[in-house]
Amino acid sequence: MEEVLSETERRQVENHRGRLSRELGYEVSYDLALLDWMDNHAPRWRQERHRQLCAMQREEIERHKWIESEKAQRDLGTQAKLDWIHRYAASWREWYETRFDGGEV
Q1: pLDDT for residue 34 is more than 70
Q2: Whose CB among 27, 52, 59, 80 lies 3.0–4.6 Å from 68's, allowing a Cys bridge?
């Protein structure tokens, strides 16, 4: 099961392990924390993280559209949105996946 987790998810499991250990008063194994996180928290966390990703990405695209439209002195609309996707989407997604944990759910 471990191999299907992203780095961000592994950090979430480690955080969950710490919380469980504090709540239960003894050191919880990573495997137990992983099982509990997958069963009770992962689906909601993934859904919320995806919602955050989409909202943040839309915000970046709209910001790019506004900046490029201002430079062109006209509304570039879809053209600017596609420009962002081609120029920045991959690197932005990499940043999001490696550095933005999305918090707890």
Answers
A1: yes
A2: 80
